[in-house]
Write a structure and sequence with these properties.
Length: 308
């Protein structure tokens, strides 16, 4: 009796495998592939990707693209700001100078790097290294990744606004090619303090804005919780800024973001840098200075109606 019951149970539960239809039509019982739904707010989605904790940081790009990198420290006035990574090395065999904003991975490094927010000594260190590059005619590559300049009392006491303003003026007249890439967050004057360049690029999921979405929402909407709405209104993504001719190009990222395939992102940035350096190498020093000056002088020129 037990053997008969066992056979009966097997006959009821076991179902033979069905071969797929010969004509190639999908099986009605098969599960359809999951399709990624486009975000309802692409701007806010890119802000979140720019802040992803596993997104490649400046040091990752330096290690992947620059050989024989030698880091330089200190501003020769106050101290060494670890949120600014600066030094010299070789990009595809050619000497370059690197100035980058570096965030941290773990808590200890985040505190050491001050969460990527430079203080006055950081901007002065950056300028010291850039002036050294101009002296020896080395192209400068700057990598922007900061939520903004550090707003603490100590930074203000040491002249935060003056340090950034001085960088803007001096970078405008450095007699060497400058290339800037926003690799993550590009927050306000903290980003612009190392961003006056002949070529300005952005990674596909980076953002560049005069203010963070949270701060904008707190001021405009009196509610920082409306940061997503503010992000859309600010037009801070690479696509938006390219359309307004505020940047020169967008560096493609792998589907889903740079954190899913850092090697491919680093290689993509390397191609962009190589092309930009070749273009700028064909210009004289006077042409480099004029091109940089004209680039920023023409920002903000808009015409919404017929010319008078």
């Amino acid at each position: 009796m037990a053997e008969k019951k066992t056979r009966a149970v097997h006959s009821e539960t076991a179902k033979p495998e069905q071969a797929p239809p010969a004509d190639g039509t999908p099986d009605a019982g098969a599960q359809a592939p999951v399709q990624e739904t486009p975000p309802t707010n692409p701007s806010w989605h890119r802000v979140q990707l720019a802040r992803h904790p596993k997104r490649p940081h400046s040091r990752d790009y330096v290690q992947g693209l620059i050989s024989d990198f030698e880091e330089l420290h200190g501003d020769r006035l106050f101290g060494d700001d670890q949120s600014i990574l600066a030094g010299m090395g070789f990009f595809k065999g050619s000497p370059v100078m690197i100035v980058a904003q570096q965030k941290g991975r773990d808590t200890k490094e985040k505190l050491l790097r001050n969460f990527g927010m430079p203080k006055p000594e950081g901007y002065r260190k950056a300028l010291r290294v850039m002036q050294l590059a101009a002296k020896f005619r080395r192209p400068i590559i700057t990598l922007i990744d900061t939520p903004g300049a550090y707003p603490g009392i100590d930074a203000e006491e040491r002249g935060q606004a003056e340090a950034i303003a001085y960088n803007l003026r001096e970078m405008a007249r450095l007699a060497t090619p400058i290339i800037t890439v926003v690799i993550g967050e590009g927050g306000s004057g903290g980003a612009l303090g190392i961003g006056v360049a002949n070529r300005v690029y952005m990674l596909e999921n980076a953002y560049y804005s005069v203010i963070s979405p949270e701060s904008c929402a707190a001021i405009i909407y009196r509610d920082s919780g409306k940061a997503a709405e503010a992000a859309a209104a600010l037009r801070m993504t690479a696509k938006d800024l390219l359309a307004m001719k505020l940047i020169d190009g967008v560096v493609a990222e792998p589907p889903g973001g740079a954190h899913l395939d850092p090697e491919a992102t680093i290689a993509s940035l390397g191609e962009t840098l190589q092309n930009a350096l070749l273009e700028l190498a064909a210009l004289t020093l006077n042409e480099i200075l004029e091109q940089r000056y004209d680039k920023f002088r023409h920002m903000g020129d808009f015409c919404t109606g017929a010319a008078l």
